[in-house]
Each structure stands twice: as C-alpha cells, then as structure tokens.
Amino acid sequence: MKDYLLIIFGPSAIPMVPLAFLAVSAILNVVLDLVCVLVLDWGVKGAAIATVFSQFVSGVGIGLYTLQSSSRSSAPAEDCKWDKHNLGTILNLSVMTSVPASGSVCPSAGHWQMPSALGII
Prior knowledge:
single chain; mainly alpha; two-stranded antiparallel sheet; two-stranded antiparallel ribbon; 4 helices; 63% helix
C-alpha cells in the first residue's frame, strides 16, 4: 500500500513529502531493530517485527496524509466499494513484486544460502 501511495506523490510539487515518510520509516526501523534485537533479545524475529511495524507506520502516515491533502483521493461514494476481483488482482501483483524483492534466504545443510533462478548459490 505504501508504495502505491508514494506513486501519487511522484509528479507532486512537494517531493520532500515521500522522502520524509521514507526517512521516518528508516529511522524508526533502526531504532526498533536495536530495541527488539539488543534489549528484548528477539534476534532475527525481532528485526522482522521491527521492519514490518515501521513499514506499517509509514504506510498509515502516507495514507492519512494522502486523504487529507490530495484531491485525487476523493473518489465518488459509488466507487468506494470492495470488489473481490480487483482485490485479488492487487494482492496478486503485490505478491509478485514483493517476493522477488525480499531477498529471502532459505536454510540448507545447516547454514543460510541465497536462492537464485539457477538454484542455491
């Protein structure tokens, strides 16, 4: 969601707005990483929780800013309804773009290896 809302600001006259949200998200992620990993001793799970939470906060912030300031976000009431087909398409595209970009790793033979199109590296 956050990436789609950032697209709205692409041609914007205020290029600092998306940059500010991304900077806040990055700083929050670093702080939460330190708290979750070092203070709470959650390890990799803590880093993942910190990343997801900071991205969520950034997405909510961008969404609220968009609703308050963008005339493009004010759609007619009849267009503001859930459509299962459109939601399925959005989720499909989101998964297709986020999974390859995640840089996920998989455990194999007791150590972590990076998957690739040619097999395990």
